[in-house]
Amino acid sequence: MSATARRELAEFLRSRRRQVDPRVAGVPGGGPRRTPGLRREEVALLSGVSHTWYTWLEQGRDIRPSRQVVDALARTLRMSPAEHEYVLRLTGHGGSTPTGAAAGMPAHVQRLLDALGPSPAYAITAGWTIVGWNRAYERLYPGVAAVPAAERNLLWLVFTDPAVRSLLADWAGDSRRFLTQFRAEVGPRLADPGVVDLVARLAAASPHFRTGWASHDVDRFSSSERLFEHPRVGTLLLEHHQLTPADAPGLHLVVYTAAEGGDAADRLARLSA
């Protein structure tokens, strides 16, 4: 484990420990507590490790927990599947994360985006740089083509572009989801210069980002409905999907399709006309 991964693991464990209700964890009542959540010794006891060893984990010491210990800590701290997966990757027990597209935007991936017709779609790297999109996405978010390539990062745009903020009907909820998914993806690479620079710039530019980043919350991507308020065609209820090409594992394709039961398909057709 790198020093950055150990530090992230330590802060993440502390943040989860503070969120666990001792009564839910089966800890007998012992009067008022100075801080919320479980004590370190309680986490150690419930997880079957020594108090000293667990304290070292929260101090970021140069130790690496086994897969069995990580699983035990996940149970004790009531981690979600996404949080459990995050800790496994931080400790070297999870799958590796692609560092980015091999050579920009492959032509065949761009052709796939173009073939999606009225469904807005774009491609991002593992660091969330937008490297390609189709005409439907450019009409949904016209600013994407005008943004300088160096600033064309999805997370940066979500938190700093007023046009994106107006476009997302639930900006507070959507931006928070983007942040937790980004952290889950880049957690093992928090020391990468590009990630360090992006986080520092976002922390300086957005109080909302600073608060969310400090929480250490993580979550997996899941297909869901997303509501947009477009200045030209009005309200759009779209389903949000993410795909990874087998021959371009450093890219994620994000595709929006019309949600069932509404007029989103007609509105997308008008947008593309």
From TrEMBL:
| MF annotations from Gene Ontology | DNA binding
Fetch the Pfam families from UniProt. Answer: HTH_31, MLTR_LBD
Q: Which SMART domains match?
A: HTH_XRE
The residues covered by the HTH cro/C1-type domain are 12-84
CDD domains the record matches = HTH_XRE
Query: What InterPro entries does UniProt report for this protein, alphabetically?
Result: Cro/C1-type_HTH, Lambda_DNA-bd_dom_sf, MLTR_LBD
Checking PANTHER family in the record gives: BLL4672 PROTEIN, BLL4672 PROTEIN-RELATED
Q: What is this protein called?
A: Helix-turn-helix domain-containing protein
